[in-house]
Description:
The chain is α+β, with helices and mostly antiparallel strands. The chain folds into two domains: 201 residues, Sandwich (Immunoglobulin-like); 244 residues, tricorn interacting facor f3 domain (Immunoglobulin-like, Sandwich), CATH 2.60.40. It is 15% helix and 41% strand. The strands form eight sheets. Strands 6-5-9-3-2-13-16-15 form an eight-stranded mixed beta sheet. Strands 18, 19, 23, 27, 30, 32, 33 and 34 form an eight-stranded mixed beta sheet that branches. A four-stranded mixed beta sheet has the order 1-7-8-4, with no helix packed on it. The radius of gyration is 28 Å and the shape is globular. About 7% of the residues have low confidence.
Amino acid sequence: MARLLSTVTAFTALAAAPAHARAQAQQQHFSEQPRHGSTASADSAWAPTSVLSTIQLGGSLTRSSAVYSLEKRDSSHGGDSHRWTTAVRGAHQGGWVEATTGKGTSKRKIEMLPAAVDDDLTLYSLDLAPESDSGATSLAVTVSSVQSHQTVPLPAKLAQNAESVYLLWKGDLLAPIAGLPADQRRHVKEIKVRVKTPTPRIVSYETPEGFEAHQQTGSATLTFTSKPGVDFSTLSEQIAAVHFQQPEAVAAIRKLDRIVELSHWGNNLAIQDTIDLFNAGPELDGQFARIDFQKASMMRRQGITAIPSLSLSLPSSASNPYFYDLVGNVSTSHFRSSSSFSSNGILPSQQQKKRNSHTPAVLELKPRYPILGGWNYSFTIGYDLPLGEFVRTRAEKGSGKYLAAVPFLTPIKDVAIDAVRVEIRLPEGARDIHVHTPFPMSTVSYPAFVPSLFGKHHTVQEGGAVSWTYLDSTGRPTVVLTKEGCTDMHGGDVLIEYTLPFYVDWFQKPIACASVLASLFVAIALAKRVKTTIPS
């Protein structure tokens, strides 16, 4: 219940808003698309004086953050003092983007509205009203992003017994100020870009003409600093390249299909994930040799070119896990529930604190075979969760209204997910469905009708919005969400409000089962009255 209560704040605020405001908010959240056209942004009273960018390389995800030191220009310049526009390269292809200001307890998120898209740039309009109204003349804004597949393996093929994997990253060092008008680019005095690699082993790097590069001995950070006196308003793209060592295999997920089923009768929330895992590292050069792989495993080096296992952090209340593939059940897995973690060495006064810390359950998966470069492995996992932790009744007594917080996906650190499809199957008879997603989706669909008893309805597979399971008479209304370009930051909860009248919840399934049994008895009674013998 604590988990659910912590996720409903935004939905409660949305529900409390006037009807026309809710309609605008839902339309903006689900369907608003940035316009395509020029990257010229609206004139703003704010302009950056310096930019400090950090790029974290490694795996199939690349994390970057740009800290803008903004200052408010004099009143003679004019411009909007409440908004400032910046650009993020590649954001329209997916990934995660977030803007914040302040540090520590004063840190807050800044509203980002997509303003325009031009080629590979997405412009966002940032709301700086609170700081502007307070009379501040300087401000630090951090724009963070997580994007997938920004690196490529080099060399593209490796032998099975290779000792190292190397990746190549290329990027524009002026990306943080791309899309800004010329007067704001001219206002920038310095740009510093720190590229952090997983290990200090940097094979080579390329420095553009407008920057200088520096790396301390034994450091895994390569710093690019703009040369003094550079006019950024006239400077073209500054492409830098870093060839670095990747200490482990590059895991990615091509497709993830999640099915979530809510059962009021069973007090259960069942989750099933079908995952297409892929090794995005260098492809295997030559044939696979099992003997060589076993030798490498004895030396604990099998994880360099192959993905030997995968670890998933599940909710602490997860139970009844399973793991199978096309062949059948996979026994090479291990599940550790939150209650199975050893409490040895913990004082009695600390045991209650440990129990209240909601230690996640861990599902360790080991595929049937090592996933080498270019190989893929499709499998299915599932588990059960107590419904009471994710669904609660609304305040209106006796109204039959419920609010569910359904996990969109189970994030895996440093693993990109190219495409996600989620089916959320609500109980039979659910109606008045409203969906609020934690971030914009590619598509969102759910039924706008109440299925009739024993009616014929198109299933989700046929393009409809109803799913069928055991003992269903009308089918389960199903919410379908899709999103491309997901990262390990897309683990939020989808909030679904629905109404389930008590007479439907308590009597529909028993009446349907009783009707089927009664029909069966009548059919048997009639069949016994039919004479099948040939008269003599």
